[in-house]
Amino acid sequence: MLVFIVSGGEKEAGSFAELLAEYSDENDKPYVIGVDAGALWLVRHQFPCDLAVGDFDTIGEAGVALLEAQGIPLLRAEAEKAETDTEMALDWALLNGARSIVIEGGIGSRFDHSLSNVSLIYRCLRHGVPCVLQNPWNRVRLIGPGKTRLKTRWPYVSLIPFSEVVRGITLDGFYYPLREEDLSWGYGRGVSNEPLRSDVSITVQSGYLLVIESRDPKSRDPEHGDPVHQDP
Amino acid sequence: MLVFIVSGGEKEAGSFAELLAEYSDENDKPYVIGVDAGALWLVRHQFPCDLAVGDFDTIGEAGVALLEAQGIPLLRAEAEKAETDTEMALDWALLNGARSIVIEGGIGSRFDHSLSNVSLIYRCLRHGVPCVLQNPWNRVRLIGPGKTRLKTRWPYVSLIPFSEVVRGITLDGFYYPLREEDLSWGYGRGVSNEPLRSDVSITVQSGYLLVIESRDPKSRDPEHGDPVHQDP
Fold first, then answer.
1. Distance (Å) from the C-alpha of residue B42 to the closest C-alpha of chain A?
2. Are the C-beta atoms of A193 and A171 separated by less than 8 Å?
3. Which residues of A touch B91 (CB under 8 A)?
4. What number is the ipTM of this complex?
5. Can you tell me the distance from the alpha carbon of B144 to that of B167, in angstroms, rounded to the nearest whole number?
6. How do residues B75-104 score in pLDDT, each as one tens digit?
7. Which residues does chain A have within 8 Å of residue B126's beta carbon, measured at their own beta carbons?
8. Full strand arrangement of the beta sheet holding A74-76
9. Which UniProt keywords apply (chains A, B) (predicted)?
């Protein structure tokens, strides 16, 4: 079962529709969990929502009533709980046989939540369940030792060490080559590499490596924010 | 010497002006480095800019000419370099005697850049130079073993393990208490704690812990993004 977890961070209806279609085609129909405001977002954009999870402090009782009126099952938590709402959804997915997880809207303005979601990817990896964390400008994976093949259409692929030292990294199909080299905390050497084709690979000898496909927001004012590039 | 590194990510002129005034008062005048588009942002908002650093691919030759016309010294790099522009500025700061560093606009839409900047904080910590990474909604620090006192006016303080396991964490002055407990990768337990007063402390026995002061963007539509709270 492929599980989409739709959280409260940044997302775009258009790209989510594409993603849903892409995965619905390859696999069976994905199971979609809306997290607090994410559930309302799904309903308002007429996407399926198979389960709504969270303390619902963001959408309040009016939002909860709206979800119930749609017949969406609710998994409701106390506001004062040890885990985040997204983590609750992830727990549910792992306990109910998810074989692959996409956290849509898992990156947003609250950097602590975004970082906590990166940490959740690690839990999935330890459970042997591939997990992708994304928003419209970034798609984050975590890889361990071995060779990982990646199909990508994004202009940048950044490699950031999750472990203190990631050893023996070899890249195939990237503009900036690496051959059995190490990346460590404290240095930005792996940032903004560029895939030369849609099918690339990354081999790691030891350690955990974050692989981030990214693009610059097109509408961003270059004086105010990130550089503006064209997404090839 | 306190060094401000102003990068291309999210920032607000008002809060930067306050920050500059706050630090200029406590210490001597800070040294301000503009990174690529960050330098132009400083000039356009009539802030001081003592040095401009980067490959300047974002602001282009017109932007560079504008900086030169203002008499700002430039440290210019090749576009194809191993380090990021912000890292270049940090290298300069560490080599030139910075005793404290603030990276303003170090968090933005490009999540790979934001994460790479988190990694730079680790380098500063290893050099014994305190470093803060921030944008208008988040302020990120990294702490190691020992007791860290923190003055904060932010509604949330999240604790996220940077090391795989951070052992023996004890909090003083927080709503959700911790007493000689561990936080590990994969779990969100330390997220969205709330300081009970402006003066709190965090004690760590071993490992590195990210401390993130954060607030929700006030103007954010709760259906679209993060929850909306009032900043107390």
1. 10
2. yes
3. none
4. 0.90
5. 11
6. 998 878 888 999 999 999 999 999 999 999
7. 186
8. A74-76, A51-54, A31-35, A2-6, A100-104, A131-135, A138-143, A209-214, A156-161
9. ATP-binding, Kinase, Nucleotide-binding, Transferase
